[in-house]
Write a structure and sequence with these properties.
By secondary structure, this protein is mainly beta. It contains no helices and eight strands.
Length: 135
């Protein structure tokens, strides 16, 4: 059973235009198991706006593959669902989908995008965060 987790490691980073006012940023913390081509963890989407989209937490799982060529050595896809509240004055909530995709180098820096209810963010930087840094 322990062979299933051989080579597992933690990857943390951000997807989005960090520093751009109002831009949604997806921060991820993922356990990567290359031998199983799997990733799982948590994504927190934050945006400097008031309302239900200002802080969203999503449990995700997905796939990771070695590209075998070029600058970006890994291709990653993530999927998850979360509870999305209706914007005021409406009341209630529903289950919404989250998807992310990115290509990164061995340091987990690259390019990608993500989508969630009524939002699609494409062609933005992916930047790793080292352990001990603020995510």
């Amino acid at each position: 059973m322990s062979e299933l987790l051989i080579g597992a490691y933690l990857a943390e980073g951000k997807i989005g235009n960090v520093g751009t006012p109002g831009a949604p940023i997806a921060k991820f913390s993922l356990v990567v198991v290359p031998s199983q081509n799997s990733v799982s963890g948590t994504v927190v989407i934050s945006q400097a706006v008031n309302g239900p989209d200002s802080h969203i937490v999503v449990q995700v799982k997905g796939r990771i593959y070695a590209t075998g060529f070029g600058k970006y050595t890994k291709a990653v896809s993530l999927q998850g669902q979360y509870v999305q509240s209706f914007p005021p004055p409406a009341l209630g909530a529903f289950i919404a989908d989250f998807d992310a995709h990115f290509s990164v180098d061995d340091e987990w820096n690259g390019i990608g995008g993500f989508s969630y209810w009524r939002h699609s963010v494409e062609n933005v930087p992916v930047a790793s965060v080292k352990q001990g840094e603020l995510v």
